[in-house]
Amino acid sequence: MKPDNKLVVVYETQGMIRAEIIKAKLESAGIPALLKYESLGPVLAVTVDGLGRVQVLVPQEREQEAHELISESK
Questions:
Q1: In total, how many domains does the chain have?
Q2: What is the pLDDT of residues 25-62, one digit of tens each?
């Protein structure tokens, strides 16, 4: 991803597994994706009070495409 790209959240979940699946699906379609999460959540496997929350981010110009791919997997 270019450093000047604005990133937007396209998916949010509790725990890493679902977020990793969504990220892999986006990347396989050529959409760069990053995961944003609290570092303590995965270490302690905690999923309460926001500690296990994981956000999937993509460049803003790919947001619509990402939403379409994510909706196909539901």
A1: 1
A2: 999 999 999 999 876 554 555 555 556 789 999 999 99
